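Input chain follows. Return structure tokens only.
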Amino acid sequence: MFEQIIRDQIFIDFGCEVLYGDDQVYLNYPIRFATVGLHLMSTSLLSGIVDRIRKDQGFTPIHPIDEYTDEMCDGDAFYDFFIDLNDWSQTKVGTCIEAAVCNSHSADEGELYAIDLTTDEQTALYNRLDEQCRQYLGKGCEELLAEARKAMEDMS
């Protein structure tokens, strides 16, 4: 079921720049790995999840949920959603979708929230992102990661 939800509710915002970069983890020594940052379109599903997280923490949601009506919500605010592809994880996708609170009147303006993903959700999400990248960019996620890897090596 979550594969269908991901198919219906996850869309890369190709109006935004694809960000090539790198990150590192520290185990016994630093290990660098390539990353590709993608901006996601705000959908009712993603916004609803973050609204619930914020509401549970005492912040006013952006959209009407539960006892909150349109008049009670933070109507000027919006969320920016991001996901990363990376060479580190087995699934090649980050462990969460990040959401930044933008233009809010709440104290959490600019804060980041995470929508945690299971391994199965990461795999389904990778497949969805790969499909969209092939359709709109003419190259898949592995090719984007190869470009990030090359840029990272060129900077070394």
